[in-house]
Design a protein that fits this description.
By secondary structure, the chain is α+β, with helices and mostly antiparallel strands. It has four helices and four strands; from the N terminus they run ααβαβββα. Strands 1-2-3-4 form a four-stranded antiparallel β-sheet, sandwiched between helices.
């Protein structure tokens, strides 16, 4: 119990660390697609955010293996941990979603001429 209290005190301590850089500033963030095993985590994240859980294809922003935010690819709805500084994570999720949408549009545009070309040869 004491370790948990110490953790919470350190987490919300407004004073800078000895080096002047917080753990959040130096942590590496990973943006990845959500998998089936992430459903409970996405559900918990939505509960923290007081939002409906994300269903379907989604992107997840993780820091040190812990999900900070998630974005639904279908409707671009975001759920994020309200107790963490997630603004940058949400922006990265939106950027990655736009990149994926551009790639998907490019593939759809190229598929039609190939289909027509095969049909014309037949």
């Amino acid at each position: 119990m004491w370790q948990h209290l110490e953790y919470m005190i350190d987490r919300f301590d407004p004073r800078p660390t000895a080096a002047g850089v917080s753990e959040v500033d130096t942590a590496a963030m990973a943006i990845r697609r959500a998998r089936d095993v992430d459903l409970p985590l996405l559900h918990d994240l939505a509960e923290l955010d007081s939002a409906r859980p994300i269903v379907g294809a989604a992107l997840v922003a993780e820091v040190n293996g812990r999900p900070w935010a998630a974005l639904a690819l279908e409707d671009r709805r975001v759920v994020a941990d309200p107790f963490l500084p997630t603004a940058a994570a949400v922006e990265l999720l939106r950027l990655r979603a736009r990149q994926l949408a551009t790639v998907d549009r490019g593939r759809a545009g190229r598929a039609l001429p190939r289909w027509i070309a095969r049909r014309a040869r037949a």
